[in-house]
Amino acid sequence: MNVAAPIRPVGSFFDAPIGDLDDLRSGTIAMAGVYCDHYSGGMPGGRLAARQLRYASSGQGISLRTDDMIDLGDLNVFPLDPVGNEAILTEQCTRILATGANFLALGGDYSVSPALFAGLRAASPGKSIGLIRISRRLDLSDVFEATPRRDTATTRIAAQIPNGLSNVALLGAAGLQSAEEYEWATDALFAPRTELHDVNGASLSICRDKMMDCCDAIFLSVDADALNTRISQTAIQSDGRGMSTERLLAVLETLQDLPVRVADLTGHLPDLDLPGQFSSAAIAVVGYALAEILRAATR
Questions:
Q1: DSSP calls for 165-224
Q2: Which residues, 6 or more positions from 225, have their beta carbon under 8 angstroms from its beta carbon?
Q3: Is 257 helix (H, G, I), strand (E, B) or coil?
Q4: pTM for this structure?
Q5: Cβ(23)–Cβ(74) under 8 Å?
Q6: Biggest alpha carbon distance in the chain?
Q7: Using only C-alpha atoms, what is the Rg of the chain?
């Protein structure tokens, strides 16, 4: 029997070429999936996001610029060893950045962000490093070395920065936050969700300008919980009044030309049925916007 049915190639993010570290160079956007959703304290499922984002953004006849992009596959993870997991994520991020490429991580939950931030810090000796975090949660809490909490991403990243929260911009916080979190947030650049309706407003402009002035390299972290829950189900559920995809894209556009070297897109819990395809497609659009910010930073 002669079967001549076409075989669809393995999908990649945005139909970008598949490669490895040897294919990276200065000006390249390296992309990798993160199969880890074990430490944020929320519902599991984010580990499947990278696979679904590849399905949603490839093989659809889309026309995107990908000549400077490389899909590296998924990062190695140790899901049952939190210390080893952070170490391997940090090492891989450092090696990617050492090639001169900028790096976009897609999938997983926000507990992976501190490890990737450590990779940026290791690859940027002598530079002032900052964090822009777009999320509904502040994730600010006391962290004790004896029992470190791995669901406090912002605190754990700020602990790596000599200037602490003064090099951190928190955008989009909403919902129930403790009084202590709001008090700690005053040490950072802070624009809650209610102030992001006008992308030309003072709060966002101040955050952007101050981050431009104080940072040589920036980690941009976007959690899908910033979006309306009709667009994306996320690990930590709250009210459904998040931003629309269009609003989030408008916010990201204001961050163009900042020195962003690493970005991550976390928190998306993909529904594997037909409606989930549309949700993942919307999240993929956000991912490509992050890639464009990384591309602009290479100019």
A1: GGGEEEE---S---HHHHHHHTTSEEE-GGG-S-TTSHHHHHHHHHHHHH-SEEEEEEEG
A2: 135, 136, 137, 232, 234, 235, 236, 238, 242, 267
A3: coil
A4: 0.92
A5: no
A6: 71
A7: 18
> In whole angstroms, what is the distance from residue 244 CA to residue 267 CA?
16
**Whether residue 240 has pLDDT greater than 60:** no
The structure tokens 């037909």 sit at 274
Sheet strands side by side (includes 129-134) = 69-74, 29-33, 102-106, 260-266, 217-223, 129-134, 168-171, 189-191
The residues, any chain, with a CB within 8 Å of residue 146's CB and separated by 6 or more, are: none
Pairing of strands 217-223, 129-134: parallel
* 221, β-bridge pairs: 133, 264
Express each pLDDT in 150-193 by its tens digit: 678 999 999 999 989 999 999 998 877 778 888 888 899 999 88
Distance, CA of 179 to CA of 99 (rounded, Å): 43
In angstroms, rounded to a whole number, what is the distance separating the alpha carbons of residues 233 and 46? Answer: 10
Structural contact between residues 160 and 246, judged by C-beta atoms closer than 8 angstroms: no
CA distances from 158 to 54, 123, 154, 208 (A): 31, 17, 6, 18
Question: Tens of pLDDT along 101-111?
Answer: 999 999 998 88
Distance of CA 276 to the CA centre of its chain: 20
pLDDT score at 230: 67
Residue 277: φ, ψ to 5°: -65, -40
Phi/psi at 287 (5° precision): -60, -40
Could you tell me how far CA 5 lies from the centroid of its own chain? 38
**Would you say residue 90 has pLDDT above 80?**
yes
Q: What is the rounded CA–CA span in Å between residue 3 and residue 5?
A: 6
